[in-house]
């Protein structure tokens, strides 16, 4: 009796590639997003504490408790990491500040001002690092984020508000003696400066009892009624 040998599996065609070894420093996919967020938070903390120029990838790695190679793996170099911090940490904060401003209707100057003051107060309460970063990296000469402020943040908030103030002024809804651009500068001076200098004036005046909500209410009263006495009975 003849025995038939089963057909052998075909071996023609390109050979299968050997499994690639996971690159050193790579994390499982489930951990990737969390680790990336941790690195961004560590970078932001270092930028606020010591300044962007003085911060190295090694500093960020130490802050996050990882190796510098791992930071390099996720972001390439410091410039790309800085861009990611701006895109994923700073610009979303600006969007939060912008939201209450956009709720004010056309010509509603009081609503526009209140939206800005409330927006900044709320954001700084959630992200207390913002005033320090603003002073160090935008306000001071040579700040690493000044160009970003002018190109990206400017059209989103300050220049947009100045344009709305100008439109309200043309419609007779804003004091004609005011410059809409300087009005925006004044608003920033009445909000960001007090928040950035809070450690100084709190110590100077023994004002630890004043929080950002108190400061926000004070600013709105100052803008609404100035120094006039309230004679209402």
TrEMBL record:
Domain named HTH tetR-type: residues: 33-93
Domain of life from the UniProt record: Bacteria
Biased composition (Basic residues): 18-27
UniProt keyword annotation of Disulfide bond present: no
Region (Disordered): 1-31
DNA-binding region: 56-75
Gene3D superfamilies in the record: Tetracycline Repressor, domain 2
UniProt KW keywords: DNA-binding
UniProt-listed PANTHER family: HTH-TYPE TRANSCRIPTIONAL REGULATOR RUTR, TRANSCRIPTIONAL REGULATORY PROTEIN
Protein's UniProt name: TetR/AcrR family transcriptional regulator
Organism: Pseudoxanthomonas mexicana
Organism lineage string: Bacteria, Pseudomonadati, Pseudomonadota, Gammaproteobacteria, Lysobacterales
